[in-house]
Design goal:
The chain is mainly α. The chain has seven helices and no strands.
Length: about 120
């Protein structure tokens, strides 16, 4: 893990606590990515009526992210509050952080909006 972080990201992980914190950040990112990916597939498969993730998240992006379980009831269990919603709680304490996190969420959403998931299927060949 330390060599990957150093060689790929130029991040030095000196202690086991550094490694644990790094892994938590990676897990948080993967959780966000997975949830937005499910949202994008739901849009493209017409499970919900929204033109894009950006529209689904709405004007208040962090709040929209937090409310995905209400906005996509079919997949509500995917969007249940969990440990990886810590950044949402933090934006409630530090509203200026909400703008920064909203920008990151929108960048991920806009990237996923560019991808085509219409042929995604759960059917076995």
């Amino acid at each position: 893990m330390r060599s990957f972080a150093k060689n790929s990201l130029d991040i030095s992980l000196r202690t086991s606590t550094d490694v644990e914190e790094f892994l938590f950040v990676v897990q948080t990112y993967l959780s966000i990515l997975m949830k937005l990916l499910v949202g994008e597939v739901a849009i493209q498969k017409s499970i919900i009526s929204a033109a894009s993730l950006e529209e689904l998240l709405g004007e208040y992006v962090v709040l929209g992210y937090e409310k995905l379980s209400d906005r996509i009831p079919f997949f509500s269990r995917v969007f249940e509050y969990d440990t990886f919603y810590w950044f949402v709680d933090l934006t409630n304490v530090f509203p200026q952080l909400g703008r920064v996190i909203s920008d990151y969420l929108l960048k991920i959403a806009k990237t996923l909006d560019l991808m085509d998931f219409t042929s995604v299927s759960s059917a076995r060949p």
